[in-house]
Protein 1
Amino acid sequence: MTARLGWALADGWTIARRALLHWRMQPGPVIFGWLFPVLMMLMFGALLGGAIEMPSGDSYYELLVPGIFALAMLFGLESTMTAVTTDVDKGITDRFRSLPMSSAAVVLGRCIADLLDSAVTLIVLSGAGLALGWRWHGSAVEAVAAFGLLLALRFALLWIGIFIGLMVKNAQSVMAVQIIVWPIGFLSSAFVATSTMPGWLGAIAQWNPLSATATAARALFGNPDPSAASWIGDHALEAAIIGPLLLTAIFLPLSAIRFRRLSR
């Protein structure tokens, strides 16, 4: 069992290195992916910052930056879907499956590469947030825990992206799925407190896993979150842990089953 796990990790790292080599050879799309959330932060900070009153005179960026952190984890779903679908469409995945390598290596390598990409995204966003005036007010351990929750959300969304990427027929089909990502991202507490929304809409937004992670991250960073009082809001930390675990428990096995059924 240990030997098989080591074999899978070694092969997975080989596949991940392939993605990293693509970064070096084609850095433009990768760098744009890191900077796009920064653009969102600047744009919404400038558009909404003057209109939203924060408690105790806090900067709007105190609310916005953790929300953009969580939103960036969701936006990474699109790149995962596209990469997986492109490899399947071009027959690259079938070539990997024909090699004497672990059957889990292809999806594991994609996970490793995309998690590294998301970690760099968070570093870039943190630097931009600090330059704009955002600060965390808790301990270093709490800040690390907040970033851990964000990466846990990304890990769960990775498996959704892999599953969808294995299900659709070609890269063009991914465009239809990408349209759904934006409403999910905006129907959350990423940009505004749910207390400012109509009651029914605020309730939906609070139960969005993105909101749970954003709210929990704000609490760990010591940033304000004047959302409406609710059960899910009071248990955001637990929801930010349980939600990704449930998504992973559902979509990881589905992805594995779908991967084994390719070309059958």
Protein 2
Amino acid sequence: MNNLLYQVDDRPPMLTTVLLAAQHMLAALGGIIAVPLVIGAVLKLPADQIVALVNAALLGSGIVTIIQCKGVGPVGIRLPCVMGTSFAFVGAAISIGFEHGVPGILGSSLAGSAIMIVGSFFMPQIRKLFPHTVTAVVVTMIGLSLVPVAIDWAAGGKGAANYAAPINLGIALFVLVTVIGLVQFGKGIISAAAVVIGMAIGYIVCLALGLVDFSSVAKATTFALPQPLQYGMTFPISGILAMGLAYVVTIVETTGTFMALGTATNTKVRGKHLCRGVLCDGLGSAFVSVLGSPAVSTFAQNVGVISLTGVASRHVVALTGAFLLLAGLFPVLGAVVVTIPQPVLGGAGLMMFAMILAAGVQMLASMEHNKRNGLIIAVSLGCGLAVSARPELLAKMPAIVSEIFGSGISTGAIVAVLLNLVLPGREAEAHDEESEEPPQPLLVKNIEAA
């Protein structure tokens, strides 16, 4: 039984497509903008350079998203996949930036992308390391890692002076309840676009309460053309090694995200699909480096949008890429979206990210319950949660250890893969994996087309 409202290759009506594409953009925009802002703030870059990094990140993310969704020859997984700048590269970028500046970051990112490009041709072999047990752990860990992000948004933003103020939590709860109501009781497009409609209602409430800050709109330029290689590039060996390691970690995380995407879209993701998707990640990161942006990777949070709404059309997400491209060319558009208060994002984000977690739990529940699987699940989730909940655990470890295990997703995935390799019984499980039917997506309800 297929519960999707729109399949991967379906083309919804234009108005529906626009609303659904905007929904994906709202889910991704904050993450895309955050990476260049963090890098710029830590390195104390001039304001104009930070703005240029943000614009390049939006433009590059949009172009690579379109290619990933539509496909160009052997490049692109052809699934509803949003691409954006990744926090997996922030640590390496900052360490490189302190010594070699932005040219060193971009040059190292360009050279390091070769790791991902070459690695993409070995994805059929890497896919064998992700049987159902490991995939279930990774999908669950993605949800567990994203939910705290939504909680911080709901509270007003990590580090905000009014963090966890009752007004923030109240707005987030209002948006959450609104989205739940629209999904559960809405029909057709109302249910499918529940996230963007709920956020719009929350935004209107914040406007009425005077909680929307338009200062970013006033400062934003109307139109800005990209300026490739405006910073120049340098290629420090230490920087290339650091970025290369970040790309290795990203391959693991991206593989997990693609597997979660397969679950949400009812698609059996095989090695050849991973090859096209990871190749697009690598070539896309090389392209955006030339454009003047930090490296990109697949966004896990948008899997939650698909799981929640049942809209798996890659053409919808390709339009999201076009919206991101326009936001990069017209910074004022992105600035308007940035005015959405954090609690509004938090209320919707909690629902979306929890859907990924619920999908992971459903996958875990469908597995055979035996000692081997229990060990893999318990130890890998425990290790992943350890570094997510207490990142200071790695503070005194060598930089290479922090780079590899700094993410709960990568830690959980690596531990699960290693345990699956060393514990007895792997051969039988690998055989079962070959005949496994495509997993069914977890939806709030079976949504009927309008």
Protein 3
Amino acid sequence: MHFIKFAALGLCSILSVSSTLIRSCTEPNTVALTFDDGPFQYTTELLDYLKEAGIHATFFINGNNYWPELSTDPEKQAILKRVAEEGHQIASHTWNHEIPEQNGVIDKQSVLESLSLIEDLVYKNTGKYPTYFRAPKGEIDEATVMLFEEFNYKVIQWDTDTNDWNRVVNGVKHKDHNARIKAAKEFLTNEYYKKKENYLVLMHDVQPHTVKEIVPYIINNGIFQGYNFVTVAECLGDPTGGWSTIGGNALSILNGGAPPNNNVVQNNYNADVDTIDYSYSNTDFQENRSITTNLNNEVMNLKSDGFMTKTVNFYVIATIILSALYMLL
């Protein structure tokens, strides 16, 4: 009896400290194009290309980066409204393209404030809050991933990096864009020939050559032909679309509450998951958040090995069984 209790507590402890850095899609035959660091002056042109091609993408935006005036300029903010209206996903990339620190240590309060600024900006222009996050330059450790998961954000990386930002190509630094364009085109073509099950592609809409050369190359040359171009949320099978309509995660915490239940699915959409009840009220969720969030993450983990996680399927199943035994003994 004591052994079972010990094992149950031990496995529950393993689950409680695990983190999930999402590096790949889980839905087969999908390509998720993602664009970091914007919006910027080239984003409108990019949206035109995507609209004409019928492609949906995900934009990891900053509030104060290439366009410091974004937060005060309604004309520039209109781009965010267009992004959402045309079926794209908006996600957070921090306000100032940095995860705030104090004396080399992540500043939790400043992180919340940074996230809340993005949430507020996006909500004012789209009526929805973003729930996905990508770290600037992808630089994030496990402890920081866990912090963002505490804020009920899904932390996204990539598995296909075009290096469209890097002037150094094959060890040589170039002054113009030509070498980067050529390298990116060759890389994407080679990746396509691998015929992987899915792709999560990193690009930057603040780079003119990405918008004017690389994206048109993908569209006009049939790169990823036969795949479905989707948002990151769609490529993960997330029925929320990466949005919350019931509150901002960071904003809710700063206002003294818990992050809203972003896993609530409207219209009785069960996303082919029979083991999770999405009918919690917001009040119920305040009491059950940790259980519901962990279970939902584990169900997504069971769908594919595209995640980098410490939790394995055996521990998920064993923990559920042993936890039930522990409650009975």
